[in-house]
Amino acid sequence: MSPLLFSLDIGTRSVVGTIMKQLDDEQYEVIDLVQVEHKERAMIDGQIHNVLSVAQVIEQIKEQFEERHGPLKEVNVAAAGRALKTIRGEASIDLSERLLISTEAVQNLELAAVQEAHEQLMKQTKELSTTYYCVGYSVLQYELDGEVIGNLIDQHGQVATIKVIATFLPRVVIESLIHSLERAGLKMAGLTLEPIAAIHVLIPQSMRRLNVALVDIGAGTSDIAITSDNTISAYGMVPIAGDEITEQLSNHYLLDFPIAEQIKRQWTDGETVEFEDILGMMYEATYDELLSILSPSIDELATSISEQILSLNGDHPPQAVMVIGGGSLTPTLTERVSEHLKLPQARVQIRDTKAIKNVIIQDNIQNSPALVTPIGIALAAQESPIQYVSISVNGRDIRLFELSNLTVGDVLINAQINVSQLFGKPGLGMSLTVNGQFITVPGEHGTPSIIQRNGELVSIKSPVADGDSIEVIPGKKGKDAVAKIEDLIEKVEPLHITINGEPHTIEPTLTLNGEPTTLDQSLKDRDVVEAKQLTTVGQCLEHCGVEIARGESLLVKIDGRPHQLKPSNLLLYMNGQMTTPQTAIQNGAVIQLIQQSERTLAQIAKELNLYTTSAISVQFNGELVNITRMNYTIFVNEEEVTDLQLVVTNEDDVSWQARPTTNFMFSDVFAHTDFELPTAATAQYQLSRNGNPAEFTDPIFNGDELAVNFF
Fold first, then answer.
1. Which residues make Cβ contacts (< 8 Å) with residue 291, sequence separation at least 6?
2. Where in this chain does the record put each SHS2 domain (predicted)?
3. Neighbours of 412 (CB within 10 A)
């Protein structure tokens, strides 16, 4: 006869004990079940707060079972899923100095994110790092330069980031369980987690490739576990459950809490519930009336569960949701969860003991979703118990729970080895400014760490077993960046030019942080290097000490008022062609400077925008005649001059006096031709303008046709 399997589900409101026996290799039978409620609040959020009180309840269940089935020495138990702490963490690395990101670098970054989550947990709980075990993690997303990406391997960018969700179990949860059992005269035969227990009987290994959420709604909390990719990928909890509904009912009708709990259990569609409040008033409440009162609390519970599922599952809904526990029977709850998750109602279902395969339940035990976890605890603790394993890390023994297939990375996290240091950091780079351009000189790449398991090289994803010895040799940091000026710029050649017949050689300027330097000078971070050669004619003249002098200004008078003229021009030539100081210099250029110290009256008039003469053109006796006259009377040193090409200097006294403006007259044409009028008294003639008779004093204009007609 196979030994009996004794298991306990130690919950917030009560403790459920089950007795099972194994019929064959695959089939079990539940032959007995006892449920006893706590006499006081000995359990809070899955943690035993009063060991003595919990031990008394356990002993009471044990005694009842022993009366019917004989002595019991060992029991299978579960750590409450609500005791698990789920924290998000993230870690980033700088990719600017890496060619591509490797598989090992991604794995290291994942574990660094888990350690960051562990550090957050320590800050929140103000506990020592050794008081929590990491029992699993899953990657939420990879990011490259702030954008979500499917995979980081062989990617290139500036910054790679991994975000994970990690789950931790307090050591004290296990220790308090052991102490409570010992006081009841029992020894822990097997240990599991409540979410694992329920999943074990409802979602076998063959189904865990599916993304399914299992929600166990108890009295004080709702525990959640997620499966995907053939494993249990995440655990979580929300601190509200069935008691929230009971409290709402108690507050509305002024009921003692046990009475409100009893009414909640009687609340079914189509039924009317009768009860009495604390003041003695009687009530009859229909299903719809209770639903209207309790709807806000139900919706709050559904919302909290849905949001936690999304958080654990990478912000997207799972393929299906299974709901168990006494709180799962709350009317309309599953419909509201499906609505919040945007899943069809058929994908959110209550599962009870009938859904457990290979388990026979005797008729005297009521079928209920509240009994899935107690039965699962017995089977999971029997078939897949959580074991303590001992592994040596660099000569130090590390004990941890084997909740899943342990890897080297899991051991390193629990050994408090800084995963970010497993891959040697690159050496420090240098940021430099060269000729105004910002450049970076990278440091040398670091070397990866060496991890050995029992003397063999392994990676952080390699599996480990009890008794393994792991040695970690951290990677070495790369050398810091080293550079000289000659490594960053090409040599600048000197300029050879000739200025007014004298040869000049112009060497380039090379400065480091504003001070002269040489090409073989070593550089340090934030140095500023400038290597320049002169580029224009003006720069070269200034460098060679040749001033581009300008002549003195000239003072003249116009109608008695003084006017200051601009200084005389400098004529600049390069290779025989007139140029300007802004012209680009040529190596081997021949430059000439000619200072213009004198100027003519015509040049002065042009600078002053004076129209010194007026002119018209007419036809006279069939020939073209150009008639000009001076608009100004010009005096140089008080003598009138008419030659506009007369050269004057700064020592001359030049004055311009405007003449009255009058029209040209017919008589002006004779001063510009060789024609002479006859002097004989007998000669008769007639002046004509454009075919009409004219006089000597008549005005004429440009284009007129003039003639002297004899008769």
1. 331, 332
2. 5-202
3. 23
In the beta sheet, which residues pair with residue 121?
Answer: none
pLDDT, tens digit, 9 for 90 and up, residues 120-156: 888 887 766 556 777 666 677 888 888 888 888 777 7
Amino acid of residue 710: F
Quick one: tokens of 320? 């299906």
Distance CA 1, CA 641 (A): 147
Cα 698 from Cα 705, distance rounded (Å): 13
Other beta carbons within 10 Å of 196:
24
Say what the pTM is: 0.52
Q: Identify the top-confidence range among 195-199, 398-402, 403-407.
A: 195-199
* Among the listed residues 592, 591, 582, 581, the one whose alpha carbon sits nearest the alpha carbon of residue 497: 591
Percent pLDDT > 70 in the chain is 89
Q: How far is CA 423 from CA 102, 398, 489, 663, in A?
A: 11, 22, 33, 100
Report how many helices (DSSP H) and strands (DSSP E) the chain contains, helices first.
Answer: 13, 48
CA atoms of 483 and 540, how far apart (whole Å)? 32
Query: What residues does 283 pair with on adjacent strands?
Result: 275
Rounded to the nearest 10 degrees, the angle between the axes of helix 372-383 and helix 194-202 is 90
Q: Are 195 and 308 in contact (CB under 8 A)?
A: no
Terminal alpha carbon distance of the chain: 168
Average pLDDT over residues 151-178: 80
Q: What's at 376, amino acid-wise?
A: G
Could you list the beta-strand ranges (E) of 599-665: 599-600, 613-620, 623-630, 632-636, 639-641, 647-648, 654-658, 664-665
Q: Tokens representing 288?
A: 């719809």
Widest distance between CA atoms in the chain: 177
Residue 297 has pLDDT above 90, yes or no: yes
